[in-house]
Amino acid sequence: MKILGIETSCDETAVSIVEAGGDLKDLDFKLLGSALNSQVKIHAGYGGVVPALAKREHQKNLPLILDEALKKADTDLSKIDLITVTVGPGLEPALWAGITFAEELGKKLKIPVIPANHMEGHIASVLFNKTNIEFPALALLISGGHTELVLLTSWGEKEKIGKTQDDAVGEAFDKVGRLLGLSYPGGPQISKLAREAREKNIILEAKFPRPMIHSKDFNFSFSGLKTAVLYYLRDKKEINKLAVAREFEDAVIETLISKTKAAIEKYSPKTLVIGGGVIANKALRENFLKLSKNYPEMKILIPEKSLTTDNATMIAAAGFIEYLRNNKPNRKLKAQGNLDIVS
């Protein structure tokens, strides 16, 4: 089955063509072609994504991105069997751009249009590693808008066991990036500075907090860490940005590793999935791979870097799983900005 995936939840306009097969116990995905247009430069001057502007850019770019993806896949619309589109979570104006485009295309082609949950997409992104998720599975989802630990006993049975109490981890990276005077988005810039600090063995004389690291639950908090950076910068006349970036990133990594390790110890998952844009961070990936060596019976799945940030490939996969689970192609689609991964 050829699936057309559409993603417009934030500032990436993305379309992918994916060949999908198998069943819920043995899924098989192959990426045929994809195209993406990033609006990062457009929104950089605002210090964040402007929803109305994002929607307009999506509407303008979707037809062009669709054509590009079809060319890369060496196929045409007549060969598409199913359309999947992100309905949430995300910026509702941006989501509506994708939903409207998908519904019009589905009507024209007379094929089903299936809603996809963006966060389920981040979990499904690991399926392009040519391996399946064994249940029970633990998923750590870390992005600009989310930080949560989800326990899955099957594709349809999920329990959120931990979440951020304030800022998402990606949001904290961006806010600290602004405090350091770095360009938007701040995450990649902080990672670059932190890497240089490690190479030069530059260490900050102060130590930032590791929020909630000793709490007995699996929840997160990053606003206090951000505030600690703010106070440190405010009280210093001379700032070593490399040292600050390294200490901040180390605090984030230790917090995420600690909470995930505690959840592994309690639930003994067969698979650990880590998805979302923040796992593109090289140091974080390396630390999770180190952690996995302590659990040889547990499989760890991390998507390739191109599938960590927002993309339509993962949406095609998540939509196909939803199609297998709940084949109701005539559902009325609606943008749901606060859509939860646990229904």
Automatic annotation (TrEMBL):
<feature type="binding site">
    <location>
        <position position="310"/>
    </location>
    <ligand>
        <name>Fe cation</name>
    </ligand>
</feature>
<feature type="binding site">
    <location>
        <position position="281"/>
    </location>
    <ligand>
        <name>substrate</name>
    </ligand>
</feature>
<dbReference type="GO" id="GO:0005737">
    <property type="term" value="C:cytoplasm"/>
</dbReference>
<dbReference type="GO" id="GO:0005506">
    <property type="term" value="F:iron ion binding"/>
</dbReference>
<comment type="function">
    <text>Required for the formation of a threonylcarbamoyl group on adenosine at position 37 (t(6)A37) in tRNAs that read codons beginning with adenine. Is involved in the transfer of the threonylcarbamoyl moiety of threonylcarbamoyl-AMP (TC-AMP) to the N6 group of A37, together with TsaE and TsaB. TsaD likely plays a direct catalytic role in this reaction.</text>
</comment>
<protein>
    <recommendedName>
        <fullName>tRNA N6-adenosine threonylcarbamoyltransferase</fullName>
        <ecNumber>2.3.1.234</ecNumber>
    </recommendedName>
</protein>
<keyword id="KW-0479">Metal-binding</keyword>
<dbReference type="InterPro" id="IPR022450">
    <property type="entry name" value="TsaD"/>
</dbReference>
<feature type="binding site">
    <location>
        <position position="118"/>
    </location>
    <ligand>
        <name>Fe cation</name>
    </ligand>
</feature>
<keyword id="KW-0819">tRNA processing</keyword>
<feature type="domain" description="Gcp-like">
    <location>
        <begin position="31"/>
        <end position="316"/>
    </location>
</feature>
<dbReference type="GO" id="GO:0002949">
    <property type="term" value="P:tRNA threonylcarbamoyladenosine modification"/>
</dbReference>
<dbReference type="InterPro" id="IPR017861">
    <property type="entry name" value="KAE1/TsaD"/>
</dbReference>
<keyword id="KW-0408">Iron</keyword>
<dbReference type="Pfam" id="PF00814">
    <property type="entry name" value="TsaD"/>
</dbReference>
<dbReference type="InterPro" id="IPR000905">
    <property type="entry name" value="Gcp-like_dom"/>
</dbReference>
<feature type="binding site">
    <location>
        <position position="187"/>
    </location>
    <ligand>
        <name>substrate</name>
    </ligand>
</feature>
<keyword id="KW-0012">Acyltransferase</keyword>
<keyword id="KW-0963">Cytoplasm</keyword>
<comment type="similarity">
    <text>Belongs to the KAE1 / TsaD family.</text>
</comment>
<dbReference type="GO" id="GO:0061711">
    <property type="term" value="F:tRNA N(6)-L-threonylcarbamoyladenine synthase activity"/>
</dbReference>
<feature type="binding site">
    <location>
        <position position="174"/>
    </location>
    <ligand>
        <name>substrate</name>
    </ligand>
</feature>
<keyword id="KW-0808">Transferase</keyword>
<feature type="binding site">
    <location>
        <position position="122"/>
    </location>
    <ligand>
        <name>Fe cation</name>
    </ligand>
</feature>
<feature type="binding site">
    <location>
        <begin position="141"/>
        <end position="145"/>
    </location>
    <ligand>
        <name>substrate</name>
    </ligand>
</feature>
<dbReference type="InterPro" id="IPR043129">
    <property type="entry name" value="ATPase_NBD"/>
</dbReference>
